[in-house]
Amino acid sequence: MNSMQSILTLSLLGTREWVRLKFFNIVIFLSIVFIGFSYMLSTLTFSVQERLLFDFGLAGLEIGLLFISAMIGSYAIHREMERKTLFVLLVRPIPRWNLIIGFFGSIFILSAIFTLGFGFSLLLASNNWGLINAFLISIFSSFLKSLVVSSFALAMGLMVRPILSLVMTFCYWVMCYSIPDIQFFVKKMGSELLNQVVDILDIIVPQFYRINWKSYYFITNPPTMSELGWALFYCLGWTFFWLFIASFVFKRKEIV
Amino acid sequence: MNGEQQSTTILEVKNIKKSFQPDFYKTAQQILKDISFTVESGQFVGFIGPNGAGKTTTIKCLLEFIFADSGSALFFGEKLTVENRARIGFLPERPYFQEFLTGLEFLKLHWKLSHQKSDQFANKALEVLKLVKLDHAKDKKLKNYSKGMLQRIGIAQALITDPDFLIFDEPMSGLDPDGRILIKQILKSLKQTKHTVLMSSHLLEDVEELCDQLIIVHAGTVVYTGSLAVFKKDFNTLEEAYKQFKVNLNQGFDQ
Q1: Rg (CA), chain A
Q2: What pLDDT is attached to residue B1?
Q3: What separation, in Å, do the N-terminal and C-terminal C-alpha atoms of chain B show?
Q4: Is residue A28 a part of any domain in this protein?
Q5: Is residue A120 part of a domain?
Q6: Could you tell me the pLDDT band of residue A9, with boundaries at 50, 70 and 90?
Q7: Residues on chain B bordering chain A, Cβ-to-Cβ distance under 8 angstroms
C-alpha cells in the first residue's frame, strides 16, 4: 500500500516535470504537423485516401511514442542524479525499486496521454468512427511496444551514459522489427553460424514484427482477441523483465 | 524523541573505508581510510575538516547513496533500513530541488513519500514553514526562491516528518550574511529543542556557536572525536585550537 502511494507520487512528479520541458512540447508539435501532413496527403490522393491517412498517422504515432520512451527512459534517472534531486528522494523511507517504477510510471502516463491524444486526432481527421474498435487495438499495440522500449531505456540509462542508452534503444527498436529481414539475408548468405546467431537473437529480442498492427490493413482486418491477449502478456512480460533488471542495477548503483 | 532524558546512541560508525576508481585502468584511491564515531541523542555534532577530507563522502556512505568497502554504520542500533530511514532527516550540500513545485507542494511530496497521514499535513507544514520563516512564500515556485530560501525549504523538508536524527551537509555554505544568520537561528532553535544533529561544515565560527560535540576528519581518517569545550579549552576560539591541532597533526604525520 505504501509502495503504491510512493510510486504514484513519483509518477505524477515525473509527469509534471517532463510535461513542462521543451522536449515534450516539440513531440506534440511535430505530431500535430504529422497528422496535418497525413491529412493533406490523403486529400490530395484520388483513391485510398483513408488508407494513406491511417498508414502515415499510425507510423507517426509509433515514432512519437518511440521518442518519448527512449528519451525519457534514457534520461529520467540520470537527470535526477545530475541535478542532485535524487538525494532527498533516496533518503525517504522507500525502497529504491519504487523510484524505478515511479519513473516508469511517468513514462506510462505520458505515453498514454500521447497515444490517446494522437489517436483521437487521427480518428477525427479520418471522420470514420465506425473503425474505432480496430483502431483502438492498433494504437494499443503501439502503446504496448512503447512500454517495452521505455523499460529497456530505463535499464540501459542506469548502465551507460544517456546518449549511448538512447542510441542503444533506437537500435533495439529497429532490431525488434527486423529479425525476419536479417534472417532472410543470412539464409541467402548460407552461413550456418550466422543463421544460429540470428535464431538466438529472435528468441532474446522482443518480436515486435508479430504485433505490427499499425497499418490500414489491420484497421480493416483487426487481430483476434487471443492475438491481442498474447500481445498484452508478451509485451508486459518483456516490460517486467527490463524493469526487474533496472531495479536490480539501481539497487547497488552509487549516487555520487 | 526530543525530550529523552537518557542518552542513547543514535548513530554508531565503525571503521568505514571507501575507495573510488576514477576509471577502470586507473588505480583506486582510498578516500575514507578509517571513519569511526558515535552520535548520542540530544547532541549537536559538528563534523569538520578541510575540503576533500571526506565529510560528504562519509555522509553519502552513511545514507547508502554510495556503499562503503568495509565497516558499518548503525542507526538506532541497527543497519539502515527502509523503516528507520523514516527517523532520519537530511539536507544535502547545495540542494537542488524540483523547481516547478511550490514550497508547500515540495513539502507535501516529502510528506507523502514518508507515508504520513495526509490529514495532518497542513498543520505540520505550517509549523515547519514558520520555523524556517518561509510561511509567506509557501505558494511561490521554488525556481523563484533565493539560495537562502532554498536552503531553508531544504531544512523544512528534513524536519517535516519530525525525525529523530538530522544530518545537514554544509547548511551554510555559499550563503550571504543574512542567509547565514537566518539558518543559524533555525539551527539554534533545533538545538534548544534537543534535536540530535550531525552537521558537516568548514565554517568554524558556526560550528563553535552551535555544536557541543566535534568530529574532525583529516585525509579520510577521524582524528578527533569528543567535546568541543575540551578541544578548545586552552584557546579563545575554535579556530585557534584547530590551527594548533593541525600543526600538531602535520608534525605527527611528518614524524
Answers
A1: 20
A2: 44
A3: 46
A4: yes
A5: yes
A6: very high
A7: 60, 63-67, 82-86, 88-90, 92, 94-98, 100, 109-110, 112-115, 154, 157
The cell numbers describing B28, all together, are 583506486
Give the domain range for residue A58: 3-174+212-251
Find chain B residues with C-beta within 8 A of A89's C-beta.
113
Residue A237 lies in a domain: yes
Distance (Å) from the alpha carbon of B89 to chain A's nearest alpha carbon: 8
pTM (2 d.p.): 0.89
Q: Say whether A256 and B65 touch across the interface (CB within 8 A).
A: yes
Chain B contact present for A204, CB below 8 A: no
Q: Name which of B89, B100, B112 is nearest A9 (Cβ-Cβ).
A: B112
Which of A9, A20, A254 minimises the CB distance to B100?
Answer: A20
Q: Check pLDDT > 50 for residue A73.
A: yes
- pLDDT < 50 regions, chain B: 1-5
Interior angle at CA A70, CA A65 and CA A75, nearest 5: 130
Report which of B71, B58, B36, B11 is spatially closest to residue B197, judged by C-alpha positions: B11
Q: List C-alpha distances in Å: A232 to A134, A238, B11.
A: 15, 10, 49
**Best residue in B65, B76, B88 for a mutation probing chain A (most A CBs within 10 Å):** B65
The ipTM assigned to this model is: 0.86
User: Are B146 and B176 a contacting pair, CB within 8 Å?
Assistant: no
Whether B112 and A6 lie within 8 Å, measured CB to CB? yes
Q: How many domains does chain A have?
A: 1
Residue A134 lies in a domain: yes
pLDDT, position A40:
85
Which chain B residue has the Cα nearest residue A12?
Answer: B109
d(CA A43, CA A55): 14
Q: pLDDT for A205-245, tens place per residue?
A: 999 999 999 988 998 999 999 999 999 999 999 999 999 99
Residues 6 or more apart whose Cβ sits within 8 Å of residue B70: B15, B16, B17
The C-alpha atoms of residue B44 and residue B39 are separated, in whole angstroms, by: 9
Dihedral, CA of residue B101, residue B185, residue B204 and residue B158, to nearest 10: -40
pLDDT, one tens digit per residue, over A178-187 is 999 999 999 8
